[in-house]
Amino acid sequence: MKKLLAGLLFSLPLLTVQAQERDYALTQIRILTSDSLHGRGYVNQGDVKAARYLQGEFARIGLQPLPELKSYLQSFPNPVNTFPGTLKIFYNDTELQPGVDYLLSPESAGGSGKAKVVQVNWSNLQRIKASKCRDRVLMADPGTTKNKDSLSLFWRTVAPLNREAAVFVSVEHGKLTWSVSSGVAGKVLIELAAAVPLKYGKPRSLAWEVEQKAEPAYRSQNVIGMVKGTIADSFVLVTAHYDHLGRMGAATIFPGANDNASGTALMLDLARSFAAETPKYSMLFVAFAGEEAGLVGSRYFTDHPPVPLKNIKMVYNIDLAGGGDKGVTIVNATEYPAYFAKLEELNTRNGWLAAVKKRGKAANSDHYWFSEKGVPAFFMYAEGGVTAYHDVNDTADKLPMNEYEDLFRLVRAFLGSL
Ligand SMILES: [Zn+2]
Questions:
Q1: Which class is 82-214 in CATH?
Q2: Domain residue ranges in the chain
Q3: Do domains 4-78+218-416 and 82-214 have the same CATH topology?
Q4: Quick one: the chain helix, strand, coil %, rounded to 5?
Q5: How many angstroms is it from 105 CA to the middle of ligand 1?
Q6: What angle do the packed helices 404-416 and 263-275 form, to 10 degrees?
Q7: Residue-level pLDDT at 17
Q8: CATH fold of 4-78+218-416, please?
Q9: Which of helix, strand or coil describes residue 328?
Q10: Burial level of 413, CB count in 10 A (0-12/13-18/19+)?
Protein backbone atom coordinates (compact mmCIF):
# COMPACT_ATOMS: atom_id res chain seq x y z
CA MET A 1 0.00 0.00 0.00
CA LYS A 2 2.53 2.57 -1.07
CA LYS A 3 1.74 6.01 -2.37
CA LEU A 4 3.04 5.80 -5.90
CA LEU A 5 2.79 9.32 -7.31
CA ALA A 6 4.24 11.31 -4.43
CA GLY A 7 7.26 9.03 -4.29
CA LEU A 8 8.13 9.10 -8.00
CA LEU A 9 10.42 12.14 -7.91
CA PHE A 10 12.62 10.62 -5.27
CA SER A 11 12.18 7.02 -6.24
CA LEU A 12 15.77 6.27 -7.22
CA PRO A 13 17.65 7.22 -4.04
CA LEU A 14 14.79 5.88 -1.90
CA LEU A 15 14.88 2.51 -3.61
CA THR A 16 18.58 2.21 -2.89
CA VAL A 17 17.97 2.80 0.81
CA GLN A 18 15.07 0.32 0.78
CA ALA A 19 17.16 -2.42 -0.74
CA GLN A 20 19.91 -1.94 1.83
CA GLU A 21 17.50 -2.12 4.77
CA ARG A 22 15.76 -5.20 3.48
CA ASP A 23 19.02 -6.89 2.53
CA TYR A 24 20.43 -6.20 5.98
CA ALA A 25 17.33 -7.68 7.64
CA LEU A 26 17.37 -10.74 5.38
CA THR A 27 21.03 -11.35 6.20
CA GLN A 28 20.28 -11.15 9.91
CA ILE A 29 17.29 -13.52 9.57
CA ARG A 30 19.43 -16.04 7.66
CA ILE A 31 22.11 -15.94 10.36
CA LEU A 32 19.61 -16.21 13.23
CA THR A 33 17.81 -19.15 11.62
CA SER A 34 20.98 -21.02 10.61
CA ASP A 35 21.43 -24.56 11.94
CA SER A 36 24.50 -23.48 13.92
CA LEU A 37 22.21 -21.48 16.25
CA HIS A 38 19.96 -24.56 16.72
CA GLY A 39 16.64 -22.70 16.57
CA ARG A 40 17.81 -20.36 19.38
CA GLY A 41 16.56 -22.75 22.02
CA TYR A 42 18.23 -24.80 24.70
CA VAL A 43 19.60 -27.92 22.98
CA ASN A 44 23.32 -27.27 22.25
CA GLN A 45 22.86 -23.90 24.00
CA GLY A 46 21.42 -22.38 20.83
CA ASP A 47 20.13 -19.30 22.61
CA VAL A 48 23.50 -18.66 24.26
CA LYS A 49 25.18 -18.87 20.84
CA ALA A 50 22.60 -16.46 19.43
CA ALA A 51 23.30 -14.04 22.31
CA ARG A 52 27.00 -14.22 21.48
CA TYR A 53 26.24 -13.38 17.85
CA LEU A 54 23.96 -10.49 18.81
CA GLN A 55 26.45 -8.87 21.17
CA GLY A 56 28.98 -8.92 18.32
CA GLU A 57 26.45 -7.27 16.02
CA PHE A 58 25.60 -4.66 18.70
CA ALA A 59 29.31 -3.78 18.95
CA ARG A 60 29.66 -3.62 15.17
CA ILE A 61 26.64 -1.30 14.88
CA GLY A 62 28.17 0.97 17.54
CA LEU A 63 25.82 0.37 20.46
CA GLN A 64 27.35 0.80 23.91
CA PRO A 65 26.94 -1.66 26.76
CA LEU A 66 25.14 -0.20 29.77
CA PRO A 67 27.67 0.91 32.42
CA GLU A 68 25.33 -0.64 35.05
CA LEU A 69 25.82 -4.10 33.46
CA LYS A 70 29.47 -3.77 32.37
CA SER A 71 28.65 -5.84 29.27
CA TYR A 72 25.85 -6.28 26.72
CA LEU A 73 24.50 -9.28 28.62
CA GLN A 74 21.98 -9.57 31.43
CA SER A 75 22.00 -13.18 32.65
CA PHE A 76 19.01 -14.81 34.36
CA PRO A 77 17.84 -18.28 35.48
CA ASN A 78 15.70 -20.04 32.89
CA PRO A 79 14.93 -23.67 33.87
CA VAL A 80 13.79 -25.67 30.81
CA ASN A 81 12.87 -29.16 29.71
CA THR A 82 14.83 -30.33 26.64
CA PHE A 83 15.02 -33.18 24.10
CA PRO A 84 18.67 -33.18 23.08
CA GLY A 85 19.21 -36.59 21.47
CA THR A 86 17.40 -39.62 20.11
CA LEU A 87 13.73 -39.21 19.25
CA LYS A 88 11.93 -42.10 17.56
CA ILE A 89 8.23 -42.91 17.51
CA PHE A 90 6.91 -45.96 15.63
CA TYR A 91 3.18 -46.17 14.89
CA ASN A 92 2.21 -49.73 13.95
CA ASP A 93 5.94 -50.29 13.33
CA THR A 94 6.20 -47.34 10.91
CA GLU A 95 8.58 -44.59 12.02
CA LEU A 96 6.84 -41.22 12.19
CA GLN A 97 8.35 -37.90 11.16
CA PRO A 98 8.89 -35.58 14.13
CA GLY A 99 7.43 -32.09 13.71
CA VAL A 100 5.21 -33.26 10.83
CA ASP A 101 3.41 -36.36 12.16
CA TYR A 102 3.75 -35.53 15.84
CA LEU A 103 5.23 -33.32 18.55
CA LEU A 104 6.40 -34.23 21.99
CA SER A 105 4.47 -32.21 24.53
CA PRO A 106 6.99 -29.65 25.84
CA GLU A 107 6.74 -31.12 29.36
CA SER A 108 7.15 -34.74 28.17
CA ALA A 109 9.38 -37.08 30.14
CA GLY A 110 11.83 -39.41 28.38
CA GLY A 111 12.03 -43.18 28.15
CA SER A 112 11.65 -46.06 25.73
CA GLY A 113 9.35 -49.05 25.20
CA LYS A 114 6.62 -50.55 23.10
CA ALA A 115 2.98 -51.22 24.02
CA LYS A 116 -0.47 -51.82 22.64
CA VAL A 117 -2.67 -48.78 22.05
CA VAL A 118 -6.01 -48.19 23.78
CA GLN A 119 -8.09 -45.61 21.91
CA VAL A 120 -10.51 -43.34 23.67
CA ASN A 121 -12.93 -41.07 21.80
CA TRP A 122 -16.49 -39.79 22.16
CA SER A 123 -17.99 -43.16 21.14
CA ASN A 124 -16.36 -45.15 23.97
CA LEU A 125 -15.52 -42.43 26.51
CA GLN A 126 -17.90 -43.63 29.22
CA ARG A 127 -17.19 -47.35 28.71
CA ILE A 128 -13.40 -47.67 29.00
CA LYS A 129 -12.17 -48.94 32.34
CA ALA A 130 -8.97 -47.53 33.81
CA SER A 131 -7.65 -51.07 34.42
CA LYS A 132 -7.74 -51.65 30.64
CA CYS A 133 -5.24 -48.79 30.17
CA ARG A 134 -2.61 -50.09 32.59
CA ASP A 135 0.87 -50.00 31.00
CA ARG A 136 -0.69 -49.34 27.60
CA VAL A 137 -0.42 -46.36 25.29
CA LEU A 138 -3.57 -44.29 25.79
CA MET A 139 -4.54 -42.45 22.62
CA ALA A 140 -7.22 -39.82 23.26
CA ASP A 141 -9.11 -38.19 20.42
CA PRO A 142 -11.46 -35.36 21.44
CA GLY A 143 -12.56 -34.84 17.82
CA THR A 144 -12.93 -31.45 16.24
CA THR A 145 -15.26 -29.86 18.79
CA LYS A 146 -14.29 -26.41 20.01
CA ASN A 147 -16.95 -26.42 22.74
CA LYS A 148 -15.18 -25.69 26.03
CA ASP A 149 -17.65 -27.64 28.19
CA SER A 150 -17.42 -30.70 25.95
CA LEU A 151 -13.62 -30.57 25.93
CA SER A 152 -13.48 -30.10 29.67
CA LEU A 153 -15.75 -33.14 30.17
CA PHE A 154 -13.64 -35.18 27.75
CA TRP A 155 -10.29 -34.45 29.42
CA ARG A 156 -11.75 -34.87 32.93
CA THR A 157 -12.99 -38.34 31.97
CA VAL A 158 -9.68 -39.23 30.34
CA ALA A 159 -7.55 -38.13 33.33
CA PRO A 160 -8.09 -41.27 35.53
CA LEU A 161 -7.43 -43.50 32.49
CA ASN A 162 -4.22 -41.63 31.79
CA ARG A 163 -3.01 -42.24 35.35
CA GLU A 164 -2.71 -45.96 34.47
CA ALA A 165 -1.18 -45.54 31.01
CA ALA A 166 2.54 -45.85 30.19
CA VAL A 167 2.42 -43.20 27.44
CA PHE A 168 -0.22 -40.62 26.61
CA VAL A 169 -1.04 -39.59 23.03
CA SER A 170 -3.51 -36.80 22.27
CA VAL A 171 -4.82 -36.49 18.73
CA GLU A 172 -4.51 -32.98 17.31
CA HIS A 173 -7.01 -32.02 14.61
CA GLY A 174 -5.63 -28.52 14.12
CA LYS A 175 -2.09 -27.54 13.24
CA LEU A 176 0.81 -28.90 15.32
CA THR A 177 2.08 -25.97 17.39
CA TRP A 178 5.09 -26.49 19.65
CA SER A 179 6.18 -24.64 22.80
CA VAL A 180 8.70 -24.73 25.69
CA SER A 181 8.11 -25.93 29.25
CA SER A 182 10.01 -25.43 32.47
CA GLY A 183 8.22 -28.36 34.17
CA VAL A 184 8.47 -32.09 33.44
CA ALA A 185 5.54 -34.56 33.43
CA GLY A 186 5.71 -38.13 34.74
CA LYS A 187 5.58 -39.89 31.35
CA VAL A 188 6.12 -39.53 27.62
CA LEU A 189 3.43 -37.25 26.18
CA ILE A 190 2.83 -37.06 22.44
CA GLU A 191 0.63 -34.81 20.29
CA LEU A 192 -0.26 -36.79 17.19
CA ALA A 193 -1.47 -35.24 13.92
CA ALA A 194 -4.98 -36.50 13.10
CA ALA A 195 -3.65 -37.36 9.64
CA VAL A 196 -1.53 -40.21 11.05
CA PRO A 197 -4.35 -42.71 11.77
CA LEU A 198 -5.88 -41.81 8.39
CA LYS A 199 -2.56 -42.53 6.70
CA TYR A 200 -1.36 -45.59 8.64
CA GLY A 201 -4.64 -47.13 9.83
CA LYS A 202 -6.18 -47.92 13.19
CA PRO A 203 -3.55 -47.86 15.93
CA ARG A 204 -2.30 -51.24 17.17
CA SER A 205 1.05 -50.55 18.77
CA LEU A 206 3.33 -47.65 19.58
CA ALA A 207 7.07 -47.82 20.22
CA TRP A 208 8.97 -44.86 21.62
CA GLU A 209 12.52 -43.81 22.28
CA VAL A 210 12.73 -40.33 23.77
CA GLU A 211 15.91 -38.79 25.15
CA GLN A 212 14.90 -35.99 27.50
CA LYS A 213 16.90 -33.79 29.82
CA ALA A 214 15.59 -31.30 32.36
CA GLU A 215 17.91 -28.30 32.72
CA PRO A 216 16.92 -26.80 36.11
CA ALA A 217 20.05 -24.60 36.30
CA TYR A 218 19.91 -23.29 32.73
CA ARG A 219 20.76 -19.61 32.29
CA SER A 220 19.81 -17.34 29.40
CA GLN A 221 20.87 -13.80 28.51
CA ASN A 222 19.10 -10.61 27.48
CA VAL A 223 21.31 -8.62 25.12
CA ILE A 224 21.17 -4.86 25.76
CA GLY A 225 22.86 -2.01 23.88
CA MET A 226 22.52 1.76 24.08
CA VAL A 227 22.69 4.86 21.91
CA LYS A 228 23.12 7.85 24.21
CA GLY A 229 20.64 10.66 23.65
CA THR A 230 20.68 14.41 24.30
CA ILE A 231 18.45 13.77 27.34
CA ALA A 232 20.74 10.98 28.48
CA ASP A 233 18.88 9.75 31.55
CA SER A 234 15.52 9.24 29.79
CA PHE A 235 15.15 6.06 27.76
CA VAL A 236 13.15 4.73 24.85
CA LEU A 237 13.35 0.94 24.51
CA VAL A 238 13.10 -0.99 21.25
CA THR A 239 12.74 -4.67 22.09
CA ALA A 240 12.39 -8.01 20.32
CA HIS A 241 12.83 -11.54 21.66
CA TYR A 242 15.51 -13.55 19.86
CA ASP A 243 14.93 -16.93 21.51
CA HIS A 244 12.79 -19.58 19.85
CA LEU A 245 11.99 -23.25 20.51
CA GLY A 246 15.26 -24.86 19.46
CA ARG A 247 15.50 -28.55 18.68
CA MET A 248 13.02 -31.34 19.46
CA GLY A 249 15.39 -34.29 19.30
CA ALA A 250 18.78 -33.88 17.66
CA ALA A 251 17.43 -33.88 14.09
CA THR A 252 14.37 -31.60 14.19
CA ILE A 253 14.79 -27.85 14.30
CA PHE A 254 12.29 -25.03 14.81
CA PRO A 255 13.97 -22.10 13.02
CA GLY A 256 11.59 -19.33 14.18
CA ALA A 257 12.12 -17.07 11.16
CA ASN A 258 8.97 -15.00 11.58
CA ASP A 259 8.93 -15.64 15.36
CA ASN A 260 11.12 -13.76 15.96
CA ALA A 261 14.25 -13.62 13.84
CA SER A 262 12.26 -11.10 11.76
CA GLY A 263 11.52 -8.78 14.69
CA THR A 264 15.10 -9.10 15.96
CA ALA A 265 16.34 -8.09 12.49
CA LEU A 266 14.03 -5.05 12.44
CA MET A 267 15.24 -4.07 15.92
CA LEU A 268 18.89 -4.35 14.77
CA ASP A 269 18.09 -2.32 11.66
CA LEU A 270 16.50 0.43 13.79
CA ALA A 271 19.56 0.33 16.06
CA ARG A 272 21.79 0.93 13.04
CA SER A 273 19.67 3.89 12.06
CA PHE A 274 19.63 5.50 15.53
CA ALA A 275 23.33 4.80 16.14
CA ALA A 276 24.13 7.06 13.18
CA GLU A 277 22.85 10.13 15.06
CA THR A 278 22.29 11.51 18.57
CA PRO A 279 18.62 10.86 19.38
CA LYS A 280 16.58 13.06 21.74
CA TYR A 281 16.34 10.36 24.43
CA SER A 282 18.81 7.57 25.07
CA MET A 283 17.73 4.50 23.13
CA LEU A 284 18.05 1.00 24.55
CA PHE A 285 17.91 -1.91 22.12
CA VAL A 286 16.98 -5.06 23.99
CA ALA A 287 17.02 -8.56 22.51
CA PHE A 288 15.09 -10.59 25.08
CA ALA A 289 15.71 -14.27 25.80
CA GLY A 290 13.28 -16.77 27.36
CA GLU A 291 10.15 -15.28 25.77
CA GLU A 292 8.82 -18.60 24.53
CA ALA A 293 9.44 -20.14 27.95
CA GLY A 294 6.93 -17.66 29.46
CA LEU A 295 8.25 -14.10 29.02
CA VAL A 296 11.07 -15.01 31.41
CA GLY A 297 13.73 -12.58 30.16
CA SER A 298 11.50 -9.51 30.10
CA ARG A 299 10.14 -10.38 33.53
CA TYR A 300 13.71 -10.53 34.86
CA PHE A 301 14.51 -7.20 33.17
CA THR A 302 11.56 -5.45 34.85
CA ASP A 303 12.33 -7.10 38.22
CA HIS A 304 16.04 -6.14 37.93
CA PRO A 305 15.92 -3.04 35.75
CA PRO A 306 19.41 -1.90 34.65
CA VAL A 307 17.94 1.64 34.30
CA PRO A 308 15.14 2.98 36.54
CA LEU A 309 11.74 1.98 35.12
CA LYS A 310 10.42 5.47 35.87
CA ASN A 311 13.02 6.87 33.44
CA ILE A 312 11.63 4.80 30.55
CA LYS A 313 9.40 6.96 28.31
CA MET A 314 8.19 4.13 26.10
CA VAL A 315 8.80 0.49 25.18
CA TYR A 316 8.24 -0.57 21.56
CA ASN A 317 8.24 -4.37 21.33
CA ILE A 318 8.37 -6.10 17.94
CA ASP A 319 7.43 -9.77 17.58
CA LEU A 320 6.56 -11.21 14.11
CA ALA A 321 7.67 -8.85 11.34
CA GLY A 322 8.16 -11.09 8.28
CA GLY A 323 4.76 -10.42 6.69
CA GLY A 324 2.45 -7.43 6.92
CA ASP A 325 0.31 -7.23 3.80
CA LYS A 326 -2.71 -6.97 6.11
CA GLY A 327 -0.96 -4.33 8.21
CA VAL A 328 -0.02 -4.42 11.89
CA THR A 329 -1.82 -4.79 15.18
CA ILE A 330 -0.79 -2.82 18.25
CA VAL A 331 -1.36 -4.50 21.62
CA ASN A 332 -1.96 -1.88 24.37
CA ALA A 333 -3.25 0.60 21.78
CA THR A 334 -6.35 1.24 23.92
CA GLU A 335 -4.16 1.81 27.00
CA TYR A 336 -2.17 4.60 25.36
CA PRO A 337 -4.60 6.26 22.90
CA ALA A 338 -2.44 9.35 22.24
CA TYR A 339 0.55 7.23 21.18
CA PHE A 340 -1.72 5.06 19.04
CA ALA A 341 -3.26 8.11 17.34
CA LYS A 342 0.25 9.32 16.46
CA LEU A 343 1.19 5.95 14.97
CA GLU A 344 -2.01 5.75 12.97
CA GLU A 345 -1.65 9.31 11.75
CA LEU A 346 1.93 8.70 10.56
CA ASN A 347 0.80 5.62 8.66
CA THR A 348 -2.22 7.29 7.06
CA ARG A 349 -0.27 10.39 6.07
CA ASN A 350 2.49 8.37 4.41
CA GLY A 351 0.40 5.48 3.07
CA TRP A 352 2.77 2.82 4.35
CA LEU A 353 0.82 -0.15 5.65
CA ALA A 354 -2.66 -1.46 4.78
CA ALA A 355 -3.85 -0.95 8.37
CA VAL A 356 -2.72 -0.09 11.89
CA LYS A 357 -5.18 -1.96 14.09
CA LYS A 358 -5.76 -1.46 17.78
CA ARG A 359 -5.98 -4.09 20.47
CA GLY A 360 -6.22 -3.98 24.26
CA LYS A 361 -3.99 -5.53 26.88
CA ALA A 362 -2.62 -9.04 26.30
CA ALA A 363 0.10 -11.06 28.04
CA ASN A 364 1.38 -12.37 24.72
CA SER A 365 4.87 -10.89 24.44
CA ASP A 366 7.60 -9.00 26.29
CA HIS A 367 5.79 -5.64 26.51
CA TYR A 368 3.53 -7.18 29.15
CA TRP A 369 5.61 -6.77 32.34
CA PHE A 370 6.46 -3.18 31.41
CA SER A 371 2.88 -1.97 31.09
CA GLU A 372 1.94 -3.96 34.22
CA LYS A 373 4.53 -1.83 36.03
CA GLY A 374 3.23 1.42 34.60
CA VAL A 375 5.72 1.87 31.76
CA PRO A 376 3.98 2.78 28.48
CA ALA A 377 4.57 -0.17 26.16
CA PHE A 378 3.36 -1.15 22.69
CA PHE A 379 3.62 -4.55 21.11
CA MET A 380 3.49 -4.54 17.31
CA TYR A 381 2.98 -7.64 15.20
CA ALA A 382 2.57 -7.78 11.44
CA GLU A 383 -0.30 -9.69 9.88
CA GLY A 384 -0.75 -11.45 6.56
CA GLY A 385 1.51 -13.52 4.35
CA VAL A 386 2.79 -15.98 6.98
CA THR A 387 0.90 -19.07 8.18
CA ALA A 388 3.73 -20.90 9.97
CA TYR A 389 3.75 -20.46 13.73
CA HIS A 390 5.75 -22.44 16.30
CA ASP A 391 6.32 -25.20 13.75
CA VAL A 392 9.06 -26.58 11.52
CA ASN A 393 7.77 -24.53 8.57
CA ASP A 394 8.72 -21.13 10.03
CA THR A 395 11.76 -20.88 7.76
CA ALA A 396 13.59 -17.86 6.34
CA ASP A 397 12.85 -18.77 2.70
CA LYS A 398 9.08 -18.62 3.37
CA LEU A 399 9.06 -15.06 4.76
CA PRO A 400 7.50 -12.59 2.31
CA MET A 401 9.33 -9.53 3.75
CA ASN A 402 7.24 -7.53 1.27
CA GLU A 403 6.20 -4.86 3.79
CA TYR A 404 9.53 -4.73 5.58
CA GLU A 405 10.58 -1.24 4.43
CA ASP A 406 7.22 0.23 5.42
CA LEU A 407 7.36 -1.46 8.83
CA PHE A 408 10.81 0.03 9.29
CA ARG A 409 9.67 3.52 8.23
CA LEU A 410 6.60 3.46 10.46
CA VAL A 411 8.47 2.44 13.61
CA ARG A 412 11.41 4.74 12.79
CA ALA A 413 9.09 7.72 12.31
CA PHE A 414 7.08 6.95 15.44
CA LEU A 415 10.16 6.59 17.66
CA GLY A 416 11.61 9.75 16.12
CA SER A 417 8.40 11.64 17.04
CA LEU A 418 8.63 10.87 20.78
ZN1 LIG B 1 7.42 -14.60 19.50
A1: alpha beta
A2: 4-78+218-416, 82-214
A3: no
A4: 35, 25, 40
A5: 19
A6: 50
A7: 52
A8: Aminopeptidase (3.40.630)
A9: strand
A10: middle
Task: Compute the distance from residue 263 Cα to the ligand 1 centre, in Å.
Answer: 9
d(CA 277, ligand 1 centre) in Å: 29
Percentage of the chain beyond pLDDT 70 is: 95
* pLDDT mean across residues, the chain: 95
For residue 402, whether the previous peptide bond is cis, meaning omega lies within 30 degrees of 0, is no
**Spacing, Cα 78 to ligand 1 middle (Å):** 17
Does residue 9 have a pLDDT over 80?
A: no
Contacts of 121 (CB under 8 A, 6+ apart): 140, 141, 142, 143
Strand, coil or helix: 119: strand
What's the gap in Å between 350 CA and the centre of ligand 1?
28
Closest CA to 98 of 259, 292, 249: 249
| Interval between CA 321 and ligand 1 midpoint (Å) | 10
Closest by alpha carbon to 225, among 270, 280, 290?
Answer: 270
pLDDT digits (tens, 9 = 90+) for 157-212: 999 999 999 999 999 999 999 999 999 999 999 999 999 999 999 999 999 999 99
Mean pLDDT for 388-406 is 96
Q: What global pTM score does this model have? A: 0.93
Model confidence pLDDT, tens digit, residues 285-337: 999 999 999 999 999 999 999 999 999 999 999 999 999 999 999 999 999 99
Amino acid sitting at position 238: V
Q: Please tell me the distance between residue 267's alpha carbon and the centre of ligand 1 in angstroms.
A: 14
